[in-house]
Amino acid sequence: MTEEFLHIGNDLGMGANKLWSLNGGLEIVSQVANNGTGRIEGMIGLKQHKRPMHISSAFGSFYIGAGAHDHGRPVENMDFNRLTGAPEMRALVYGSLAQYQAKYGAFTKPLSMMVGLPLQMMMGENAKQYRSEVKGWIKGTHEFEADGVPVKLEIAQVSITSQPVGALFDFVLNDEGEIEPSRKDAMSDEVGVVSVGFNTVELLVVKDQGAVERFTAGNTVGVRRLLELCNPEGLYSLGELDEKLRGGKLKTELKAAIPIWAREVNGEIERRWSNSHKRFVKVLIVGGGALLLKEYLTSQFGAKAWISNSPVMSISRGLWKMSVMDTKR
Q1: Closest CA to 92 of 82, 79, 107
Q2: Which residue in 127, 177, 136, 133 sits closest to 155, CA to CA?
Q3: CATH number, domain with residue 118
Q4: At what angle do helices 251-273 and 294-301 cross, to 10 degrees?
Q5: What is the distance in angstroms between the CA of the first residue and the CA of the last residue of the chain?
């Protein structure tokens, strides 16, 4: 039987938007800028840099992706409400979907999207409202222009979960959405997840396919905190610093800042888990920050630590696997 939908996992990160589907993954840096008022053309003696993708829709006109902050006014809202349909978030998701099609081919079916949200949006009295608002703006027909080219696509189904859950299912499931026999114990025993994202460090413990609430929490000490330590005078936007980090241009600053940041992150884990992590069968470590803190986190958890072969994309890949798994039930 032919699938009615194209399944896609969408990790709505503050540092990057990550998509994963059958053909593979795509990461778009979460730089968004209001469209600049003018273009500099043909200035002899200077390079003409390629402009970022321009997204235009009823919600506004924005540059998105790497270099966006060089071409317009940076939009840097780290509030969770950004993910509930702020214009800059819509532009980022639209641009990500447009670039995914440019890389892998046009979508030939409506999308069924599994969306991963920060853990803090899934907890507390506002959790239900957050889920409703995110699902409300993502589901439906979307029309926009990407670099002047009209795009129309339908997101027919939307499911919402937390980002660390995506990491768990990336570990447990294969690409057919089936449980790997050698890892099936992770669906019953206690497993910890440490997700080091741009804005937050999230801790999740799962036992018998349910969250252990006393071990589950999120704190805003993600990579953003590291960049703040590298930017004491506030000379750069977070997006500009993130670009420097990805380009290997913060080596001197990182040498001093990473040990401080690592102690803060390990302190948050210690406060929530204490020594209880010793009883977990695995501790899954994902997110872009996992690459920076690999030495510190693996020494803390020893042989129980598992780092994905693609820590940055692990959550979106797991979300996609979950979406595929749902079709088999």
Answers
A1: 82
A2: 136
A3: 3.30.420.40
A4: 30
A5: 15
Contacts of 59 (CB under 8 A, 6+ apart): 87, 90, 91
Q: Render pLDDT for 90-149 as a digit per residue (tens, 0 to 9).
A: 999 999 999 999 999 999 999 999 999 998 899 889 999 999 999 999 999 999 999 999
User: Is 41 contained in some domain?
Assistant: yes
d(CA 35, CA 71): 7
Residue 114: phi and psi, rounded to 5, are -100, 115
Task: Return the residue matching tokens 């003409």.
Answer: 48
- How many structural domains compose the chain? 1
- Contact 137/130 with Cβ under 8 angstroms? no
Residue type, 138: I
User: How far is Cα 11 from Cα 313, in angstroms, rounded to an integer?
Assistant: 8
The torsion angles phi and psi of 78, rounded to 5 degrees, stand at -95, 10
In a domain, 1, yes or no: no
Residue numbers of the domain that contains 304: 6-326
Separation CA 103–CA 21 (nearest Å): 12
